[in-house]
Amino acid sequence: MSLASKYSHAAVWSLLPGYIRPDGTQAYPLTAMVANLAKTTPDRPALMRHDDVVTFFHEMGHVFHGLLSRTQFSRFYGTQVARDFVEAPSQMLENWCAHRICILGRVLIPT
Ligand SMILES: [Zn+2]
Prior knowledge:
The protein is globular and about 55 Å long. The strands form 2 sheets. The chain has a two-stranded antiparallel sheet with strand order 1-4. A two-stranded antiparallel sheet has the order 2-3. 25% of the residues lie in helices and 14% in strands. The protein starts with 10 loop residues before the first strand and ends in a 15-residue tail after the last helix. Helix 1 (50-68) packs across helix 2. By secondary structure, it is an alpha+beta fold. The structure holds zinc ion (ZN). Zinc ion (ZN) is lined by residues 58, 62, 87, 90.
């Protein structure tokens, strides 16, 4: 992929929908996140800025929305919900970034 066409922001794609098959078994979803995050260098570890953490948590909300959906029909899987609920899981995860200590037990220092 050339740099000119390189994706410049984080995004999530649903690759396979999850749903309950007619025999009652679960068809498991597949979701992918793509993001440009800091890379490690020989003299610096790969540290994320606070806004990168917020972006990462936001996109993880979409990932969890896709991976944890439990629907009978793939049509209603993941973010295929009422438009004003699409961002709800992401906003809940973003909210954790506003607390000095998030559920991961790490101290977040706002920029
Ligand atoms: Zn979003």
